[in-house]
């Protein structure tokens, strides 16, 4: 019965070769030949389809350049964050002096508790090896932050003058505002305010990271500026290019305030250009603006967008997150840097039981102090290796906190955001001799120990080319590829599938239904008799 059925299928199928296998007139050798041929084609075809499938599955994304260039006024001017390397002015708090007193047993006794705590707080933002291992492990974040703010130079003591688009500002407070980072108190320009950058409801309330109220009117990382946005808005748009349409600022420092112990022999300022929706991490990336030098920074934006066609794909396959796909506990906007910051916070908390005051954290986390600095430093290096190892088998020798921390690290998976903006800086510098200029003008130079630095930041070109992630293979392309191979090897088409389905379902059902009917219909029921009928007919015609 089944054999008859298969013969029926093979004689009617539109797949090449199958016909000859089923036909009665063919000799055994012919049948074997066609069977082998058919099997070879099926195997070869399957191998090729498997290859196409792997290509589709493993690399569905292609990154190419957008067809048109983007003018710089469509993106925000980079956010600029400036940190001074002198964390405590020597005239206010002599860190070098306290370091020697703290580390000498006989003088340690003579320090008051307040002085010790102050020293430990400052050592948090200095080089890692200076932090006393015997110091407090935890402290109240609000007290530490207040102490550091008091000792570090304030905005009028660092900035001498600012110009935005070639218009001098009365006071730099119009442009720059304080921001708390891992490097202590820094100053930032064009960053979103705390309400728009953080999920304030999840953060602790002990102290603020950002203290200003400039609200972004309409810009979002994903959508950019709406078409009706005026030219003057916040975050500032990049309008124009060249030195005249950028940000220029003068920085100052007094020789007597510099501390060479805290941050080592390189004094001056650290500067980072970043996306306005991102918390800067100056301990990792920065360029320098040395004292008595002018730095000219030409900025080239690097933007990456993603086509809508990639939305249905899994995030790990397309290697980026759309904003709705990833929730960050402490940040409103998903960017890779924000995610990494949060991941480090979670990991440090799991490993050390506390976090650095510069990391945004929840109300249940305590703030680390000098005694935990070695642990925080370890956590940073461990996180890198934990992320690499999370794909490998679990380390059997790891003890409890490390095991827990690995679990935290495995959760992170900080892929890039599908729309991202970065700013590449091209710097050049030259001596900035303000005293020679004053002498030339015959002005008095009374403040002999004043050091200055000038920074100019502007877009290099009026437009740039955006990169774009899009589908290498859509589902249609995949289907077309498979169809081509199947057609080439077997003469396969969608109708062949329909035919197979028909033989498996409808025809079986029809045959069974007919069998139950009266005998008169039997002539047409059996395929064999049908064949006989046909033969009779052909004989008659002959
Ligand atoms: C700070 O202390 C060091 C070492 O004791 C000393 O050389 C330096 O002059 C002090 N600085 C100030 C501003 O008092
Ligand atoms: C510690 O301080 C005392 C008094 O200032 C000094 O005599 C001694 O040499 C110091 N010890 C060290 C190891 O620096
Ligand atoms: C510490 O203080 C005591 C008394 O207050 C004083 O006698 C001693 O000389 C001080 N030691 C140092 C090293 O300053
Ligand atoms: C810091 O916060 C604690 C409670 O969290 C509070 O008791 C203390 O007064 C605060 N200190 C300052 C200087 O604000
Ligand atoms: C900065 O500190 C100086 C004194 O050190 C003070 O006169 C000035 O008002 C402060 N500026 C701000 C903005 O707090
Ligand atoms: C913080 O701790 C309190 C009590 O210890 C708990 O009720 C609360 O759920 C915790 N919050 C978070 C975000 O873990
Ligand atoms: C876990 O390992 C760390 C060092 O890797 C060690 O200092 C700590 O004592 C260990 N804890 C336990 C419970 O074994
Ligand atoms: C950090 O921990 C919080 C709370 O456990 C969690 O909601 C969040 O997703 C974690 N962040 C990352 C980047 O894994």
From TrEMBL:
<keyword id="KW-0813">Transport</keyword>
<dbReference type="GO" id="GO:0015280">
    <property type="term" value="F:ligand-gated sodium channel activity"/>
</dbReference>
<feature type="transmembrane region" description="Helical">
    <location>
        <begin position="32"/>
        <end position="53"/>
    </location>
</feature>
<dbReference type="InterPro" id="IPR001873">
    <property type="entry name" value="ENaC"/>
</dbReference>
<comment type="similarity">
    <text>Belongs to the amiloride-sensitive sodium channel (TC 1.A.6) family.</text>
</comment>
<keyword id="KW-0407">Ion channel</keyword>
<keyword id="KW-1133">Transmembrane helix</keyword>
<keyword id="KW-0915">Sodium</keyword>
<keyword id="KW-0406">Ion transport</keyword>
<keyword id="KW-0812">Transmembrane</keyword>
<dbReference type="Pfam" id="PF00858">
    <property type="entry name" value="ASC"/>
</dbReference>
<keyword id="KW-0739">Sodium transport</keyword>
<protein>
    <submittedName>
        <fullName>Uncharacterized protein</fullName>
    </submittedName>
</protein>
<feature type="transmembrane region" description="Helical">
    <location>
        <begin position="485"/>
        <end position="509"/>
    </location>
</feature>
<dbReference type="GO" id="GO:0005886">
    <property type="term" value="C:plasma membrane"/>
</dbReference>
<keyword id="KW-0894">Sodium channel</keyword>
<keyword id="KW-0472">Membrane</keyword>
């Amino acid at each position: 019965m089944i054999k008859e059925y298969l013969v029926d299928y093979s004689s009617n199928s539109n797949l090449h070769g199958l016909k000859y296998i089923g036909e009665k007139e063919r000799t055994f050798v012919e049948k074997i030949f066609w069977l082998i041929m058919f099997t070879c084609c099926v195997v070869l075809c399957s191998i090729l389809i498997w290859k196409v499938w792997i290509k589709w599955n493993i690399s569905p994304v292609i990154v190419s350049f957008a067809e048109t260039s983007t003018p710089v006024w469509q993106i925000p001017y980079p956010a600029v964050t400036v940190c001074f390397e002198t964390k405590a002015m020597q005239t206010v708090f002599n860190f070098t002096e306290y370091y020697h007193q703290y580390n000498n047993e006989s003088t340690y006794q003579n320090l008051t508790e307040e002085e010790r705590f102050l020293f430990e707080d400052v050592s948090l933002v200095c080089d890692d090896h200076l932090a006393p291992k015997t110091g407090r492990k935890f402290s109240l974040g609000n007290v530490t932050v207040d102490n550091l703010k008091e000792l570090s130079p304030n905005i009028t003591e660092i900035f001498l003058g600012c110009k935005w688009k070639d218009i001098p500002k009365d006071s730099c407070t119009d442009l720059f505002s304080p921001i708390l980072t891992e490097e202590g108190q820094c100053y930032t320009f064009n960053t979103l305010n705390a309400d728009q950058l953080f999920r304030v409801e999840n953060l602790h309330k002990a102290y603020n990271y950002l203290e200003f109220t400039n609200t972004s009117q309409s810009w979002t990382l994903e959508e950019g500026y709406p078409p009706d946005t005026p030219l003057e808005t916040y975050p500032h748009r990049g309008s124009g290019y060249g030195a005249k349409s950028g940000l220029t600022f003068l920085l100052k420092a007094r020789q007597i305030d510099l501390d060479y112990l805290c941050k080592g022999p390189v004094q001056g300022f650290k500067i980072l250009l970043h996306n306005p929706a991102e918390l800067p991490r100056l301990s990792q990336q920065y360029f320098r603006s040395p004292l008595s030098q002018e730095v000219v920074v030409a900025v080239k934006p690097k933007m990456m967008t993603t086509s809508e066609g990639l939305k249905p794909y899994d995030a790990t396959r397309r290697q980026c997150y759309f904003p709705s796909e990833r929730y960050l506990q402490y940040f409103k906007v998903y960017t890779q840097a924000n995610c990494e910051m949060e991941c480090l916070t979670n990991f440090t908390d799991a490993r050390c039981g506390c976090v650095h005051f510069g990391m945004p954290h929840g109300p249940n986390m305590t703030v680390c102090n000098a005694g935990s600095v070695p642990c925080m430093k370890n956590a940073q290096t461990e996180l890198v290796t934990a992320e690499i190892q999370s794909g490998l088998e679990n380390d059997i020798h790891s003890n409890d906190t490390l095991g827990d921390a690995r679990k935290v690290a495995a959760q992170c998976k900080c892929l890039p955001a599908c729309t991202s903006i970065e700013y590449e800086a091209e710097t050049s510098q030259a001596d900035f001799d303000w005293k020679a200029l004053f002498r030339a003008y015959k002005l008095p130079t009374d403040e002999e120990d004043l050091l200055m630095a000038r920074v100019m930041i502007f877009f290099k070109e009026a437009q740039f080319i955006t990169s774009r992630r899009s589908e290498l293979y859509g589902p249609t392309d995949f289907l077309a590829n498979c169809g081509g191979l199947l057609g080439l090897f077997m003469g396969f088409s969608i109708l062949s599938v329909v035919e197979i389905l028909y033989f498996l379902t409808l025809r079986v059902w029809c045959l069974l239904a007919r069998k139950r009917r009266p005998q008169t219909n039997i002539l047409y029921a059996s395929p064999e008799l049908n064949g006989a009928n046909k033969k009779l007919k052909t004989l008659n015609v002959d």
